[in-house]
Design brief:
Largest sheet: 7 strands, mixed
CATH superfamily of the largest domain: P-loop containing nucleotide triphosphate hydrolases
CATH topology of the largest domain: Rossmann fold
CATH architecture of the largest domain: 3-Layer(aba) Sandwich
Distance between the termini: 32 Å
Radius of gyration: 25 Å
Number of domains: 4
Helix content: 25-40%
Number of strands: 20
Strand content: 15-25%
Shape: globular
Structural class: alpha/beta
């Protein structure tokens, strides 16, 4: 029998709720109230996963991970950190690449779901390691991400060649290669780039296949940085890129200097200087990113800084190849959506749709929000909304937005009238989120949605988002609106202009990024 899931939390009521949620997945649990008890319990019966509050008394959660990582007997234990310090701590030297970090307000159901996905990832990693110990091994990056794979080989000191292949839209095939000696990455190549830059680029792949051929690796090392540090930095860059996805320049955008070369600043950072020098011979962001040896994410951040300083201009219109698509979702977002959908379902099943419930204050608000959605690349607006023949009390599909990796977001129109209250629990059950939509300066609409908000909040794993639609000249103070609505922060509040000079995709991208799990 597998060792129990260890839940370490000084708030024992919260720990019991997590234990009950884990029991729903068939996991046995053990509860401790402080870091010293967690350490003692882990050494007595090594757990596969520890759910650790980062503010544990005596020994905090991150320090506990550091101690167990140093012990050969417990070094393979994975952690699900919960707490305000989780994300920042995990990015440093204490956490592991295979660990998970959740904010302090994460629900017990969501924590249990993350434990389930962590256990599944561990099982896949164990299967790969068993095959690798016997010879060559092949697999899919959707089943075991490259970060997990490299840490697995690093812990087990594997040597050999790791080849990666993925197929981009349009059938273009991309390849990558890594050379490992005793678990350390010596060389990396992705298309026409090599070294650490290539490794960081390959770490962003969430689809494709891998094949590992064990054997002696000869030749000098092109990468000198310790592999553990590389993986931690790679994960940090991926998370940052995902968080700033709506601000980073698209790769297919045209780029040019906005000022004469002799007007460029001097004494700038070496990366900025390199980007400006390489820009003189490149016309697209993708060409510039390839030409500069620094990691892609750092180059994109530098380009964006130059845009904000009016030194560089981007043309984000469709490129000469005729591509009009805007990538709304990053690979990390798609991976989290896949994990969220998989939680609580039989292993081996493949869910493909996530539901977003849209409860509008009145018919006009629903119509205006549907019009915004229809302008998103790839959005399939339902016929009833396309022909404007729906009623405010209709429960019907609003449309579908493809996400990637075979997944999509189904938007469901849910009546917001008090007479429709019996429908709210059913319509919001199992939803990725509930969007409460109203026109900005419309107190009547806002009041009408309070009952729907309360009903949706009672559902397991409930995630509530408030959307206010504003005309060109309308203004609202987010702080006062947040206070009036009793919101703890502005992370679930979105003010969307119905008419704006900015593209709809840019305005909606930030909202969708927060809605994704």
């Amino acid at each position: 029998m597998a060792s129990p899931i260890l839940i370490a939390d000084h708030d024992q009521n919260r720990a019991k709720r997590v234990a009950e949620a884990c029991a729903g997945y068939g996991f046995e649990t053990a509860l401790v109230a402080n870091g010293a008890e967690a350490l003692e319990a882990s050494l007595a019966d090594v757990p596969e996963v520890v759910v650790a509050n980062t503010e544990l008394p005596l020994i905090d959660g991150l320090r506990l991970a550091e101690i167990l990582r140093a012990n050969p007997r417990t070094q393979d234990t994975r952690f699900v950190f919960v707490g305000s310090a989780a994300v920042s701590g995990l990015s440093g030297a204490l956490g592991g690449v295979l660990d998970e970090a959740l904010p302090a307000n994460t629900t017990a159901d969501d924590i249990a779901a993350r434990v389930e996905s962590t256990m599944m990832a561990r099982e896949r990693a164990d299967a790969v390691e068993r095959e690798a110990s016997e010879g060559a091994v092949q697999g899919s990056l959707t089943q075991i991400p490259l970060t997990d794979l490299l840490q697995l080989f690093h812990m087990n000191r594997r040597s050999g060649q790791l080849d990666l292949v993925r197929r981009e839209p349009g059938g273009v095939e991309e390849t990558g290669n890594l050379a490992l000696r005793d678990g350390n990455v010596l060389r990396a190549r992705a298309a026409n780039v090599e070294g650490e830059k290539a490794l960081y680029r390959l770490l962003s792949w969430r689809e494709g296949s891998f094949s590992f051929e064990p054997g002696r690796v000869t030749g000098s090392a092109r990468i000198q940085t310790p592999t553990r540090a590389l993986l931690l930095e790679g994960v940090r860059q991926l998370d940052e890129a995902q968080r700033l996805a709506d601000r980073l320049p698209p790769l297919d955008a045209r780029i040019r200097l906005s000022v004469a070369p002799d007007e460029l600043p001097t004494g700038v950072h070496p990366l900025t200087e390199t980007v400006l020098r390489a820009l003189r011979d490149r016309q697209r962001v993708s060409e510039l990113v390839d030409a500069v040896s620094w990691p892609d994410y750092q180059v994109l951040r530098t380009i964006q800084a130059l845009v904000e300083r009016d030194l560089v201009t981007l043309d984000r219109s469709a490129d000469a190849s005729g591509s009009h698509d805007v990538a709304l979702f990053q690979p990390a977002q798609i991976r989290r959506l896949r994990d969220w959908l998989q939680a609580g379902r039989p292993r081996g099943s493949r869910p493909t749709e996530a539901k977003l419930s849209v409860i509008a204050g009145d018919r006009e608000a629903a119509r205006d929000f549907a019009d915004l959605l229809s302008k998103l690349p790839g959005f399939e607006l339902a016929d009833a909304f396309q022909d404007d023949r729906f009623r405010s009390d209709d429960l019907l599909p609003m449309g579908r937005l493809p996400v990637g990796d075979g997944f999509g977001l189904d938007f469901l129109h849910v009546p917001g009238t008090p007479e429709s209250a019996p429908l709210w629990p059913l319509a919001t059950h199992g939803a990725l989120g509930t969007l409460l939509v109203a026109h900005g300066p419309a107190p009547a609409e806002e009041s009408a949605l309070r009952g729907a908000a309360a009903a949706a909040a009672r559902r397991p794993r409930a995630r509530i988002f408030h959307v206010r639609l504003l005309g060109r000249e309308e203004r609202m103070d987010p702080a006062s609106l947040q206070e009036r609505m009793g919101l703890l922060d502005d992370g679930s509040l979105f003010l969307l202009k119905l008419e704006s000079d900015r593209s709809v995709a840019d305005r909606m991208r930030t909202m969708l990024a927060r809605v994704m799990p």
